[in-house]
Design goal:
CATH class of the largest domain in chain C: Alpha Beta
Chains: A alpha/beta (736), B alpha+beta (219), C alpha+beta (465)
CATH architecture of the largest domain in chain A: Alpha-Beta Complex
Number of domains of chain C: 3
CATH architecture of the largest domain in chain C: 2-Layer Sandwich
Structural class of chain C: alpha+beta
Strand content of chain A: 15-25%
CATH topology of the largest domain in chain C: D-amino Acid Aminotransferase, Chain A, domain 1
Strand content of chain C: 25-35%
Largest interface: B-C, 23 and 25 residues
CATH topology of the largest domain in chain A: 2-enoyl-CoA Hydratase, Chain A, domain 1
Distance between the termini of chain C: 55 Å
Number of strands of chain A: 21
Distance between the termini of chain A: 83 Å
Helix content of chain A: 40-55%
Strand order of the largest sheet of chain C: 13-12-9-10-11-17-23-21
Largest sheet of chain C: 8 strands, antiparallel
Number of strands of chain C: 24
Number of helices of chain C: 13
CATH superfamily of the largest domain in chain A: 2-enoyl-CoA Hydratase, Chain A, domain 1
Largest sheet of chain A: 8 strands, mixed
Helix content of chain C: 25-40%
CATH class of the largest domain in chain A: Alpha Beta
Radius of gyration of chain A: 29 Å
Shape of chain C: globular
Oligomer: heterotrimer
Structural class of chain A: alpha/beta
C-alpha cells in the first residue's frame, strides 16, 4: 500500500508541477499544493500513512478543481506551453498506445540519421463485431522526446525531412495510407545538403500527387517545419495544439525589431493571441478539418482515454478519405458520425484502385485550391466571372486543338522540318564535325539560317529616377576588391546597378526589371484588383496594408503579367520588395495560382521573378502558411502538364515561399548578390547557438549546395532568360 | 631549418622594450574632412567578429563628390597626432590624418618573430601584388597555417610596368602558407614582406618557438 | 571668364599641355600620384595636387572643383578615351569643358563594332569581317566561311582569319585561325578568355591582312563644323606587342627611296584622307583625332580604328605642317578650339614641308621579349640641335627613379629634316649621341632600346612581311 501511495504521490506532484508550468506560479493556490506534495514526497517515510492518505485525497481533489479552473481561463500562450511541456504526449506515446504494433524505420532512438523525425511501419486493428481487421499504415512524424537533447525538440534536419520523403514514397509503393504526426517548433534552419528550404519544397512537391490517403495530426505545428509533412487529405488537430506561422517569441522579436535577446513577455502573449494559432482558430480559418478533443489542460503521457479516442479518429479520418474517392457520400456521413467506440460497425478497405487514386489527387487539389480563398478580396460580379470562364474555356479548347490534336498528327512531318529548318535544333544539337559538310549537305551553300538571337532593345536602358543625381557611391565590397567610387548616373544607368569592378549588385527598384528585361510595351498586367486583407484582424496590420497600398499603388506584393522576351510569350509572376517586404499571404498565393494556371491554359512558360521575399506574411498566420502547399500543388500541376517553370531570385529570398512554390521549381537561378535560404541569421543563431558566417546565404553557396542552377549577372539578365527559355524544359514543353 | 634561438631572444627583448607599433591612417583619396568621430587619446578597434564581419571604429568622414565615406580603424589602439586643424578642409590623397598606437598582441609578436624564422618572400619591386587564384582558393578552403604549397609553384602575381609577372617558390619541398602581409592590388614598396612560408617538416620547430613566445608573452 | 585647365595626365604629355597653356595664357593645375613625385611635370607645376590614381575620375573632379578649374585635358592613355568620363565631365552639376571630342563621338568611334557600322554607313572601307558580336560556334563557322569566300573572290590568297574579343584591345583576346577546322576550338578558347577578362563573351571574326603598312591621318575638327587635316603618318615599326617605336611623317615615301609601291602613293594618301574627313564629318567629330588605316601592298586600304584623343606621335605631323608659314602646335590647336576659338584658317592655308621622325626611347629589354624594366636613371643626355626636339618628363642629368606603375617610356625624340637623306643622317647622329645610363633595381645596367631603333631605322616605309 505504501508503494502504491508513493507512486500516486509522485503522480500528483507531477500534475501540480504541470499546472504550475502551464498556468504560472501565481495561479490560485497551486504553489501551496505543490509545496505540500513536494514536502510529503521528500519526507515520505517520516510521515504517517494517515497523513499521506489525507494529503492525497485533499490535493487530488484540489488539483482536479485547479485543472477545471485552469481550463476555463486557458490562454493561447498557455496552449503553446502545453504543447512544449515535457509531460505532453509525444509520437513515441502514440506509437505505443494508438497503434497495435510498429517497427521503426530508418534508425532507432539516438542511432538515427535524424532522431527528430521518426518513421514507422505500424498496424492498426479494427474490430468489427467479433472480426478483427488489420490495417497497415506508414507513420511519419516528429519526435520531441521528453527532454532528450538529441531529438532537438522535434526540429527536423534537412536530411530528416528527406528521410520522411523516402518513407512516403515507400508507402506509395506499398499502397498504404500515411499518418503524419506534427510535433515541431519548426524545421532546423540549416542550409547543409539537402537544405532546409529545398527539402521542404521537395516534400510538398511530392505530397501534391502522392497516391495514397494522407492524414495529418498537429500538436505543435511550427510553420514550414509542419508543412514538410503536413500536406494531407485530412488535417486533424489536437484541441490543445497550436499551428502557427511562427512561434509567438519569434513574432515578438520581429515586431519589436530585436536583433538578439529575448522579447518582453507581454508582447509574446499578445502575439500568441494575435497569431490565431489555437485549434479552434485554425478550424475557423479553414486551415484544418477537425479537432480531436483533449482532457482539460491537455493530454499527457498517461491519458489512455485520449489515445483510444485518437485511434478511432484516425481510423475514421482514413475511412473518410478513402470513401470520398468512392463517392459514397451519404454512407460516409451516416456511418462516420455515429462511430464513437472502438468496436466499428463497418469495415473499409484502404486499398485504392487506379481510378480512385486519380480522384484522391484531384480532391486534394480542389481542397487546397479552395483553402483561404475567403481571405482575399476578389472583385465579384457574376457577368465578369462568367465571361472570364467562357473565355478560359474557349482558350483551353483552342489550345487543345492546336497543340494536342495537331501536334500528334503532324509529328513525323514536323520532325522532318525541324531537322532541316528548326531554329532550335541548330543551336541545341551537337552538330558533328566538320560542320560545314553536314550543313552544306542539308541546306546547300549561301543560305544563312536564322539563329535565335535576342534583339537589343532600342533606346538604351531604362533609367530609374535615382539615376539622375550627381553624386558617387561606394561599393560595399570596395574594402575587399578596391573598387573605385561609382558615379550614380553611370551605376543606375549603363552599369545596370552592378559595380563594374567586382560585380556587386546594388538594389534596384522592381520597375527596372519590368523595363529592361521584357520586350518594350509587351507587359500586360492581370488580376491587379486581387488585394491582400487582414484575415486575422492582426493589430495594426490593416493600417500598414493601407500605407503600402498608397505608397506603391499595388494591392498585394505579387504582380501578375504576361510579356514577351525576345518575342517569346511568357506568363510572369513577381514578388516585389516594396509591398510588405514581398511577403506572401493569401492574396499573393491566389495570384500565383491564377498566374500559373493561366500559363497552363495558354501553354506558356511561367517565369517567377523574386525581387525580394521575406517569407510568409506573419500577420496572416496559418492562412499564410497554407499558401505553401496550395501554391506548390499548382506548380506540380503545371510542370506535370508540360510547363516550363523558371524562378529567378534577386536580393533577399527566405523562408516559406523558398521552401515551397519557389524552391520546388525545376530551374532556379539567382542574380549575383542574392541572399537565399530558409531562416535569417537571427533565427539560426537562436536555434543552433552558432552565428552563421556572413556569406552563409550567398548565391555562390546556394549554387554550391545545389539549390540553384546558376548565378546570373543582372547586366545579362534579358539574354540569360531568353537563352534559358530556349534551352530549359522537357520535351513536352508547350511552346516549342 | 636552422633556428637561431639567440636571435629570437634578441628580437623578443627589443619588442618587450617597445611593445607598440604606430599605424598612420591616411586619406585614401582627395576630399573634405567633414567630421572627426574620435578624439586624441580615444581607443579604437579594428574589424572584429569570427569572420571580421563587424567593421572597425569609425575615425573620420571624408566626403568627395557628395559621397561621405566613413574611414574606419583597421587595428586596435590609441588615437594620437590627430590633425584636428583639417576639419572641414580639403585634403589631398595619402594625407596622414591620425596615428593609431597599437599595442602588439601575442599573435603579432609571434608573427614578427617568425619573420626571422620563416621563409619570407619579399617584394622585389615596388608593385601591386595578388595571390595566384589557385593559391587564394586554397587559403580560403584550408585557412592560413594549413594551406600547402610546393616548391616551384607559382604563388604570386606581380603587376609591374603594366605587365603581369608570376613569382615562383624557388626552394624545393612543401610549405605551409603561414602569413600573407599585403592587400590585393595595393602598391607594396620594394623590400616589404609579402608572404611567409614554413617548410612543412619544420612545423614542429616552429610550434616550439610559438609555444615559447606564448609563455613569455602572456596575452 | 579666364579658363583654367586641369591636366589629368603625367609624363611628357603633361609637360606639353602645360607649355601650351602657358603660351595660350591659360592657368592650369597638375595632379600626380604617390611614387611619381620625381617627374618633371610635378617639379615644374606651380599648383599641383596629390591624387590616388590618374584614372580616378572622382579625385580629378574633386580637385577640379576645389581648384576652380573650368576645363580638363585628359592627355592620352588613362581616361582620355573613356566616354563615361567625358560624359560625366560635361553632364555634372558643375560642368567642365572636356578638351577632346564629344562623349558620343568617343563612345561610337571608340567601340570597334559601332565604329565599323558607322564607317560602312558612311561608305568608308573597313577590314572585312562581322560587325555584330557572335556568341555561338555554329554562327561563327557560318560567318567565317562566308568571309573566306568573300576574300577569295577578291583574289586574296593565303587567307587567314582573326577571332577577336569585342571588348579586347592592345593585342589581348585575339587569335589567328588559318584553317576552318581550327575555328571551333579557337572560338571557344577566345570566348572563355574574353568572358574571364572582360566579362563579355562577344567575339568578332575579321580577315587577317598579312602584309600591310600602318598609316594614320591626323584630323582636327571644331565645334563650328570646320575640318582640316595635317597629313599622314607612317607607324609601321612596332614592337611585337603592337607598341609603336618609330613613326614618320608624311606617311608615304613619295620619292620611293625606301619603299617600292605597286600603286600611286599620292592617290592612296589623298583617298584615305578624304575617307577620314568624310567619317569625321559624318559623326560631327569636333576635336583632334587620328584615323588609323591598314594599307596593303596592292594599294587596298581599310580603316582599322579611330583614336579619339591626341596621339603620342602628334608632333611629327605638327612639325611638317605650316599655316601661313608658321609651324602649328596641335595641342595648342586642340585646347584653343575646345575652349570655343574658331580655327582661323582652312585647309588651303596648310602647307606641308619636310619630314619628321619620332623615336620612342624606352627602358625595355629588347632581348627578353621587350620586357619593361624599372630602376634608376643616372645619366640621360643628348646633344642639342636645332632640328631635334626632345619630349621627356625625365630630368636631364639628374637621378630619376622610374615609377613602376606606368609605361616605361622615357622620352620622345623628334627629328626634322628637309629631305630623306638628311633625315636619316640626322637620325643616325642623334642615336649615336644620346646617352641613357642607369641601373635596374637588381643592380644590373639599365637596358634601353637605342640599338633596336638604330637597327629598325632602315625599315621605315617598307611593307613588313
Amino acid at each position: 500500500m505504501r508503494i502504491e501511495n508513493h507512486k500516486r504521490l509522485k503522480e500528483l506532484l507531477e500534475r501540480a508541477e504541470y499546472i504550475r508550468d502551464i498556468k504560472g506560479e501565481d495561479f490560485e493556490d497551486v504553489m501551496e499544493v505543490y509545496a505540500q506534495l513536494k514536502y510529503a514526497f521528500e519526507n515520505f517515510y517520516d510521515l504517517s500513512e494517515e497523513e499521506i492518505d489525507s494529503l492525497l485525497k485533499s490535493s487530488e481533489k484540489r488539483l482536479e478543481e485547479l485543472t477545471i479552473l485552469g481550463e476555463k481561463t486557458l490562454t493561447p500562450y498557455e496552449i503553446v506551453k502545453i504543447t512544449r511541456h515535457p509531460q505532453r504526449f509525444t509520437l513515441q506515446d502514440i506509437l505505443e498506445n494508438v497503434y497495435d504494433s510498429y517497427v521503426e524505420l530508418g534508425g532507432e532512438g539516438e542511432i538515427n540519421i535524424d532522431p527528430a523525425v521518426v518513421c514507422a511501419k505500424a498496424m492498426l486493428i479494427r474490430r468489427v463485431g467479433d472480426d478483427f481487421h488489420v490495417h497497415q499504415v506508414m507513420v511519419i512524424g516528429h519526435e520531441k522526446g521528453s527532454g532528450e537533447e538529441f531529438r532537438r525538440g522535434g526540429s527536423a534536419a534537412p536530411w530528416g525531412n528527406e528521410k520522411a520523403l523516402r518513407y512516403m514514397r515507400m508507402a506509395e509503393t506499398e499502397g498504404i495510407p500515411i499518418h503524419f504526426f506534427i510535433f515541431t517548433p519548426g524545421a532546423y534552419p540549416i542550409e547543409d545538403y539537402p537544405g532546409a528550404a529545398q527539402q521542404i519544397a521537395r516534400n510538398l512537391y511530392a505530397m501534391s500527387k502522392l497516391q495514397v490517403p494522407m492524414i495529418s495530426f498537429i500538436s505543435e505545428g511550427g510553420s514550414g517545419g509542419a508543412e514538410a509533412i503536413g500536406l494531407a487529405d485530412l488535417r486533424l488537430m489536437a484541441e490543445k495544439g497550436y499551428y502557427s506561422v511562427i512561434s509567438p517569441e519569434g513574432a515578438a522579436a520581429i515586431v519589436a525589431k530585436l536583433r538578439d535577446g529575448r522579447p518582453p513577455r507581454e508582447l509574446v502573449e499578445k502575439m500568441a493571441n494575435a497569431l490565431k494559432l489555437t485549434a479552434r482558430d485554425n478550424l475557423e480559418l479553414g486551415t484544418i478539418d477537425r479537432i480531436i478533443p483533449e482532457p482539460p489542460l491537455g493530454a499527457r503521457k498517461r491519458d489512455y482515454e485520449f489515445f483510444k479516442r485518437l485511434k478511432i479518429e484516425l481510423i475514421k479520418a482514413t475511412d473518410e478519405v478513402v470513401l470520398r474517392t468512392r463517392g459514397f457520400k451519404t454512407f460516409t456521413k451516416h456511418a462516420l458520425s455515429k462511430q464513437t467506440t472502438d468496436n466499428f460497425s463497418y469495415y473499409v478497405d484502404w486499398d485504392l484502385s487506379e481510378d480512385e487514386k486519380e480522384i484522391l489527387v484531384e480532391l486534394r487539389y480542389e481542397k487546397y485550391r479552395k483553402m483561404t480563398q475567403w481571405a482575399v478580396v476578389i472583385p465579384k460580379g457574376l457577368t465578369h466571372t462568367l465571361k472570364e470562364k467562357g473565355e478560359n474555356f474557349l482558350r483551353v479548347l483552342g489550345n487543345e486543338i492546336k497543340y494536342r490534336v495537331l501536334k500528334s498528327g503532324q509529328k513525323t512531318f514536323k520532325r522532318l522540318i525541324d531537322d532541316i529548318l528548326s531554329e532550335s535544333s541548330l543551336l541545341l544539337k551537337p552538330v558533328s564535325d566538320p560542320v560545314k559538310t553536314v550543313y552544306n549537305l542539308i541546306v546547300g551553300k549561301k543560305v544563312k539560317p536564322r539563329l535565335p538571337t535576342i534583339p537589343e532593345e532600342e533606346g538604351g536602358v531604362y533609367e530609374l529616377p535615382v539615376a539622375l543625381e550627381d553624386r558617387t557611391v561606394t561599393c560595399p565590397q570596395a574594402e575587399k576588391y578596391g573598387c573605385p567610387d561609382i558615379w550614380v548616373p553611370d551605376l543606375y544607368g549603363e552599369f545596370c546597378g552592378v559595380c563594374p569592378y567586382c560585380g556587386y549588385h546594388f538594389f534596384l527598384e522592381y520597375q527596372w526589371y519590368l523595363n529592361n528585361v521584357f520586350d518594350r510595351g509587351s507587359i500586360k498586367f492581370f488580376d491587379e484588383e486581387i488585394a491582400s486583407t487582414n484575415p486575422l484582424n492582426f493589430d495594426g496590420h490593416a493600417e500598414k496594408l493601407k500605407e503600402d497600398r498608397k505608397r506603391t499603388g499595388l494591392n498585394s506584393a505579387f504582380l501578375s503579367f504576361t510579356a514577351k522576351v525576345g518575342g517569346i510569350s511568357v506568363v510572369c509572376g513577381m514578388l516585389v520588395a516594396d509591398f510588405r517586404q514581398g511577403t506572401v499571404g493569401a492574396a499573393e498565393g491566389e495570384k500565383f495560382i491564377r498566374a500559373i494556371q493561366l500559363a497552363k491554359i495558354t501553354r506558356r512558360p511561367f517565369l517567377m521573378f523574386v525581387h525580394s521575399t521575406g517569407g510568409i506574411r506573419i500577420q496572416e498566420g496559418t492562412v499564410g502558411v497554407v499558401q505553401m502547399p496550395r501554391c506548390t500543388m499548382a506548380v506540380r500541376d503545371y510542370v506535370d502538364a508540360g510547363g516550363l517553370y523558371l524562378v529567378i531570385y534577386d536580393n533577399n529570398s527566405y523562408a516559406g515561399p523558398v521552401a515551397s512554390f519557389l524552391g520546388s521549381a525545376p530551374y532556379q537561378f539567382a542574380l549575383k548578390s542574392t541572399r537565399l535560404g530558409f531562416a535569417g541569421p537571427r533565427v539560426i543563431h537562436e536555434t543552433t547557438g552558432q552565428p552563421p558566417p556572413p556569406d552563409y546565404h550567398s548565391a555562390e553557396n546556394a549554387l554550391r549546395r545545389g539549390h540553384i542552377q546558376g548565378i546570373w549577372d543582372r547586366r545579362e539578365l534579358r539574354k540569360r532568360i531568353f537563352h534559358a527559355l530556349l534551352t530549359m524544359g522537357g520535351k513536352n514543353l508547350y511552346y516549342r | 631549418m636552422k633556428v637561431d634561438f639567440k636571435e629570437i631572444d634578441r628580437l623578443l627583448q627589443k619588442l618587450r622594450a617597445n611593445p607598440y607599433k604606430i599605424f598612420p591612417v591616411e586619406t585614401p583619396h582627395t576630399g573634405y574632412i567633414k567630421e572627426f568621430k574620435v578624439k586624441e587619446g580615444d581607443s579604437v578597434t579594428g574589424p572584429t567578429g569570427k569572420w571580421l564581419e563587424k567593421p572597425g571604429t569609425p575615425l573620420f568622414i571624408l566626403e568627395r563628390e557628395r559621397n561621405p565615406k566613413i574611414i574606419r580603424a583597421h587595428t586596435t589602439g590609441i588615437v594620437q597626432n590627430l590633425r584636428e586643424d583639417l576639419k572641414g578642409r580639403f585634403v589631398q590623397a595619402f594625407e596622414t590624418i591620425l596615428e593609431i598606437r597599437h599595442p602588439l598582441s601575442q599573435e603579432e609578436v609571434i608573427s614578427e618573430v617568425l619573420l626571422s624564422a620563416l621563409h619570407v618572400i619579399y617584394a622585389e619591386e615596388t608593385a601591386r601584388f595578388i595571390l595566384v587564384p589557385e593559391i587564394s582558393h586554397r587559403i580560403e578552403k584550408h585557412g592560413l597555417k594549413r594551406a600547402e604549397v610546393r616548391g616551384g609553384e607559382d604563388i604570386l602575381i606581380m603587376t609591374f610596368m603594366k605587365r603581369e609577372h608570376f613569382i615562383k617558390i624557388k626552394e624545393e619541398g612543401r610549405f605551409i602558407i603561414y602569413q600573407v602581409y599585403f592587400k590585393p592590388f595595393e602598391l607594396v614598396p620594394k623590400g616589404s614582406p609579402l608572404i611567409a612560408l614554413c617548410p612543412s617538416e619544420d612545423l614542429p620547430v616552429l610550434e616550439r618557438i610559438v609555444a615559447r613566445i606564448r609563455e613569455e608573452w602572456p596575452s | 571668364m579666364k579658363n583654367k585647365v586641369l591636366i589629368a595626365n603625367r609624363g611628357e604629355i603633361a609637360l606639353r599641355i602645360m607649355a601650351a597653356c602657358e603660351e595660350l595664357g591659360l592657368d592650369y593645375v597638375c595632379v600626380y600620384t604617390k611614387g611619381d613625385e620625381g617627374s618633371l611635370h610635378v617639379k615644374l607645376a606651380k599648383e599641383k595636387y596629390r591624387i590616388s590614381d590618374y584614372r580616378d575620375m572622382n579625385d580629378l573632379l574633386c580637385v577640379a572643383d576645389y581648384a576652380k578649374c573650368t576645363a580638363i585635358h585628359p592627355g592620352y592613355g588613362f581616361l582620355s578615351e573613356n566616354y563615361r568620363f567625358a560624359r560625366r565631365v560635361v553632364k555634372r552639376e558643375r560642368p567642365l569643358i572636356f578638351i577632346g571630342p564629344s562623349w558620343e563621338a568617343i563612345r561610337d568611334l571608340g567601340n570597334k563594332l559601332t565604329m565599323k557600322r558607322i564607317a560602312l554607313e558612311a561608305g568608308v572601307p573597313v577590314i572585312p569581317g562581322t560587325i555584330e558580336p557572335i556568341y555561338n560556334e555554329v554562327e561563327a563557322e557560318i560567318e567565317a566561311e562566308k568571309l573566306l569566300d568573300e576574300l577569295r573572290s577578291h583574289g586574296v590568297e593565303n587567307t587567314s582569319l582573326l577571332v577577336k574579343a569585342v571588348a579586347g584591345g592592345g593585342g589581348m583576346g585575339i587569335e589567328e585561325v588559318k584553317d576552318l577546322v581550327e575555328l571551333r576550338p579557337v572560338f571557344r578558347r577566345v570566348r572563355a578568355y574574353a568572358k574571364r577578362l572582360f566579362g563579355d563573351e562577344g567575339l568578332i571574326i575579321e580577315a587577317k591582312i598579312p602584309v600591310f603598312q600602318h598609316l594614320e591621318v591626323q584630323v582636327l575638327g571644331t565645334k563650328d563644323g570646320e575640318y582640316v587635316h595635317f597629313g599622314t603618318r607612317n607607324c609601321t615599326i612596332q614592337s611585337p606587342f603592337k607598341q609603336k617605336r618609330i613613326e614618320v611623317a608624311p606617311g608615304f615615301d613619295y620619292e620611293g627611296k625606301f619603299a617600292v609601291y605597286n600603286f600611286d602613293p599620292r592617290k592612296v594618301e589623298a583617298e584615305i584622307i578624304e575617307h577620314s574627313l568624310k567619317l569625321a564629318k559624318h559623326v560631327n567629330y569636333d576635336n583632334v583625332g587620328t584615323f588609323e588605316w591598314l594599307v596593303t601592298p596592292e594599294g587596298k586600304y581599310y580603316l582599322m580604328e579611330v583614336n579619339t584623343r591626341i596621339q603620342v606621335e602628334n608632333e611629327i605631323s605638327a612639325q611638317i605642317s605650316f599655316v601661313h608659314g608658321k609651324r602649328i602646335n596641335l595641342i595648342k590647336e586642340q585646347i584653343r578650339t575646345a575652349l570655343g576659338d574658331k580655327l582661323g584658317y582652312s585647309q588651303k592655308d596648310v602647307e606641308f614641308k619636310g619630314y619628321a621622325l619620332e623615336f620612342r626611347l624606352v627602358a625595355e629589354d629588347v632581348k627578353r621579349g621587350f620586357q619593361p624594366v624599372s630602376g634608376t636613371i643616372t645619366r640621360f643626355d643628348w646633344v642639342d640641335h636645332p632640328w631635334l626636339t626632345m619630349r621627356t618628363h625625365v630630368p636631364r642629368n639628374e637621378r630619376y627613379e622610374i615609377p613602376t606603375q606606368f609605361d616605361p617610356n622615357l622620352a620622345l625624340a623628334i627629328i626634322y629634316a628637309e629631305d630623306f637623306t638628311q633625315l636619316i643622317d640626322r637620325c643616325e647622329t642623334f642615336l649615336s649621341e644620346v646617352v641613357i645610363e642607369g641601373e635596374t633595381s637588381q643592380g644590373a645596367p639599365l637596358p634601353n632600346n637605342i640599338a633596336y631603333l638604330r637597327e629598325k631605322l632602315k625599315f621605315i616605309y617598307q611593307f613588313i612581311y
